Amino acid sequence: MNNILSILIFAPIILGIPILFFGKNEKLVKIYSLVISSGVFGLSLYLFSIYNAANPDYQFVERFQWVKDFNIFYQLGVDGISILMVMLTAFIFPVTILGVWNSVTTRVKEFYFLLLLLMGALFGVFLSLDLILFYMFWELILIPMYFIIGFWGGKNKYYANLKFFLYTMFGSLLMLVAIIWISQYLTPQLGKFTTDYLALKTVSPYIPEAIQVWLFIFFAISFVIKVPMFPFHTWLPDAHTEAPTAGSIILAAVLLKMGTYGLLRFSMEMFPLIFMKYAWLLALLGVIGIIYGALVCIAQKDIKKLVAYSSVSHMGFILLGIAAMTVESIQGGIIQMVNHGLSTGALFMFVGFIYDRRHTREIADYGGILKTMPIYGSLFLVIVLSSIGLPGLNGFIGEFMILIGSFNSPLLHNHTYTIAATTGVVLSAVYLLWMYQRVLLGPITKEENKTIPDLNFREIFASSLLIIFIVWIGVYPNTFLSKSEASVNKLIQNAQTIKTNLIKLP
To answer: Contacts for 457-465 with beta carbons within 8 Å, 24 or more apart?
Structure first.
């Protein structure tokens, strides 16, 4: 299948359009959306199965000239890093649709159309090999997410949406400036103006350092905002809290990975020497995010806001792994992107389950509901333990590799970052187990909690799909790590080669 990457991107978008003409049959809208997203997931599984893990180069490349005057290409490709992001995206959407089946009751057609549009745009971000094409998909994602929060969000949705929009647009503006700047600057070396990422990255490491620094900063800020990392994180808790359950799941599971993916794909590959020079700063921001996010979690009274701040903490581990720039740490960072998507996405889904039943996010309004919701409590415990990083579950693998890799990193010079990061592991156990205790254990003190219905078959099935992968990665992570290993090795080797070449220059 020569155009499999284009099909992944445009199938959910194009096939999502008929939803707008389905009339008032909401059940048909949901079933159709589930079928389309499941079909796309099936296609991603096929891509995963035929991907050659031994080949570190981009595969299934599609390329044709899009804007001739500016040498802008429609260019797609997948490597060992992006294949895992594609799989995560493809899996999360049908599970989300299944999990929030009855959560949205107004403008149902528009909601599911926006979900499928968002799905296609996310594929575009992870598969684009032209900077302008990447930028267009990056911006396209803002549209459905803005409306999902704005139309179906909570009582403070307008404030949260404005904050989300302003932060994102600020980062996007810096990225656009950087794209135009680097393409224009390298025109003499390449003989033409182009936004072809593969062409630009061959010469971008040799740009004078004074200019590289600014280009690196512009790209990095746009990506760090999306992660988000301290001190650019404040939009995330508001967006998560006010977004509908589906929006929160997808935001946590996939959208945040755009930032860490961008750091790997563009900041590290295009400016490896500058990246190595300032790796300590990225690691520091990561560690601050780990500890700060965890401490704020402990103080939360709103269960959804607690899970939102846990994302700040857990994404800090990923940033630390990328900054350490060892094979172990980057491999750990990549698998932790997947792990965070599964575990935190599941946490938001489970928060949505009880919110749909009780219509409150206050932890104090619960307590003892394990008695009335034993299935919910049992499955929720697995999710909590995976987020903590219990051995045998997915979170342990990622965090362990990150900590080992950062401990041995020549870029970080000392072990302080790793030692500080381990406190986040302890703190995550504190706030998540404490949350579980207050919500599910003890006596039932609220009359409303005595009659809460347990999970139905659909909710159990959606949860079980997430738990299957949580256990699978925990027990046999090489299924996924083997796909990215060759690409990660090549990434680090190229950076070392460029460093050696620059040292040899007079």
So the answer is: 458/98, 458/99, 458/101, 459/99, 459/353, 460/375, 460/379, 461/98, 462/95, 462/98, 462/99, 462/349, 463/99, 463/346, 463/349, 463/350, 463/379, 463/383, 464/379, 465/91, 465/95, 465/98
